[in-house]
Amino acid sequence: MRLRALFSRLALTTAASGLAVTGLSLPAQAAEEVEVPYIGIFSPETVTVINGQSKTVKFDLYNLSDVSAKNVVLAFGSAAKPISADLGFTAPAGCDATTCTIGDLAPGQRRSIKFTIKPAAAAGAADPAKTIALSTTVGELPSDEMSITVVRTDKGGVDLEVEDVADLKLAHGKSADVPVLVRNTGNKDVAALGLVVMAPYGVTPVLNYRNCEQDAEIGGFVCVFNEPLAGGGAFTLPKNMPLRVKVPSDAAGPFEYPVYIAAIGLTDKYVFDFTKRTAGASGKELSLEAVSSVSAEEPEVAEDLNEDDNFTIFSVTVPKSTAETAAVGGSFTGEIGEERTAEVGLRNLGPSGTVPPSMASLQYAHIKLPTGIELMKIDERCLPGTSLTEIDESVTDLAQVTDLVCLVVESVPNKGRYLFSLSAEILDVAEHKAGSVSINGGVQDKKKDNNKAALTVKLTSGGIGGGLPITGAPAGLIAGTGAALLAAGFIAFRVARRRRIITVAE
């Protein structure tokens, strides 16, 4: 049972659909530039299909740019790579055999697409894998391309799928039922089923049932159903025992909170351990309600043929709330020649939390260092630069750094602080001029007069001298910092998608 791997997969999907889609700008390279919309394709790399059976393939299109995309078209196959006829490809409803008109997509908007394949029953053991090429254009200009490899099997197996859920809009303090439908489109039974619900940013899943528990490490809920789901069968949740999602009264907005629902086959050992852990749990037991049940052959140990469609994602849109933020300054306090640490950043004065990084709001701090110090270590959420559009990724020597841009990569709770740690050596100079911490509070921050604070040097004695300054950045500075920020979505698609930029020459 690969429950931990599933949580990791959902976490990566969160980055792709939320943080990484913030569309942060590349450093300016010309006096005037025009961004061309970029429609990225998020699809599985491989799909396994049982010969003679139909398989629905799901994937998403994202507008990964800061501007609206007009006249988006999705193409299936190409002149050079046509779709093989024996795959039994059927385009989505409303599309022709080779193209699908998507229309317009706003910045950050997602569009889910489905097509089906049904290869012939008699494929032959030596039948090679084939590919389905996907590509997008915006206003007839090429955008993204991807290929899905189709692997055919006569052996078969378990193939769990979770039906898509429509996006919701909920006010603060409100809740709503969420429909759940799980299918086993394979030809073998799964002995026991796990339902995983994950809301990583702040919406609260309501699953007060004795066979559901919250994973302490990840935060997602796991509900265990010790009953088989036959090949060709489908289960839903009873109307009197639904999955509900609730928006806390102090939830940050505006924001589209992602929620994930996943299904996974469970081993006997996991079911046994779960039952033992929850033996004393109170409340009703959540059950599954059969939608259809087509008996399969005697179950065998089988891996899930397609794990990429074991989950679905939907969003809960929450309206705007207020979160006044103020800059937090600090000082490098010590004697000349000593290395000292300062923690600076922002505090949230409330009354709600701050929204996570998104297209609508991105909080960051511009830290201007005081004179007479030499940086020894910077926070992993910081990079040399003065703004999100002025980041200098070429810097390899901390002695050259005078300004830093530090990103707030998560929601800051009401009355909470979000600080960045900087270490520096205090140098022997005639004057230590103060620097500053300036924050961009995002769309929730109405007052701007408290968005700047001082960053100073405070000498504890008048001694002169001290050791020679250490020059050069610590080994792996840029590599380590870049990796951390990549994981947070800071530079993920700035590097990966190489945003389409047109330079306008006079």
What does it look like?
This protein is mainly beta. It is built from 4 helices and 34 strands. It has helices at residues 3-17, 268-277, 477-488, 492-496, and strands at residues 33-35, 39-42, 46-50, 55-63, 69-76, 99-105, 110-117, 130-138, 141-153, 160-162, 168-169, 175-178, 181-184, 193-198, 204-206, 212-214, 221-225, 234-236, 243-246, 255-265, 289-292, 311-318, 323-328, 330-334, 339-351, 364-368, 373-377, 382-387, 390-391, 403-407, 417-426, 435-440, 452-459, 501-503. A 7-stranded mixed sheet has the order 24-33-32-26-30-28-29. A hairpin with a 2-residue loop joins β8 and β9 (141-153). The longest helix has 15 residues, at 3-17. 38% of the residues are buried. The model is unreliable at 15-32, 295-302 and 463-506 (pLDDT under 50).
Largest sheet data: 7 strands, mixed
| Morphology call | globular
The whole-angstrom Rg is 27 Å
What proportion strand? 35-45%
Q: How many strands?
A: 34
Unreliable stretches: 15-32, 295-302, 463-506
Residue-averaged pLDDT = 81
SSE class = mainly beta
Strand order of the largest sheet: 24-33-32-26-30-28-29
Helix proportion:
under 10%
Number of helices: 4
Short description:
This protein is mostly beta strands and 506 residues long.
Which labels suit this protein?
single chain; 506 residues; mainly beta; globular
How is this fold's topology laid out?
Elements: H1 3-17, E1 33-35, E2 39-42, E3 46-50, E4 55-63, E5 69-76, E6 99-105, E7 110-117, E8 130-138, E9 141-153, E10 160-162, E11 168-169, E12 175-178, E13 181-184, E14 193-198, E15 204-206, E16 212-214, E17 221-225, E18 234-236, E19 243-246, E20 255-265, H2 268-277, E21 289-292, E22 311-318, E23 323-328, E24 330-334, E25 339-351, E26 364-368, E27 373-377, E28 382-387, E29 390-391, E30 403-407, E31 417-426, E32 435-440, E33 452-459, H3 477-488, H4 492-496, E34 501-503
Parallel strand pairs: 3-9, 11-22, 24-33
Antiparallel strand pairs: 1-34, 2-4, 4-7, 5-6, 5-8, 8-9, 10-13, 12-19, 13-18, 14-17, 14-20, 15-19, 16-17, 18-21, 20-22, 23-25, 25-31, 26-30, 26-32, 27-31, 28-29, 28-30, 32-33
Keywords: Membrane, Signal, Transmembrane, Transmembrane helix
Transmembrane segments: 473-493
Signal peptide: 1-30
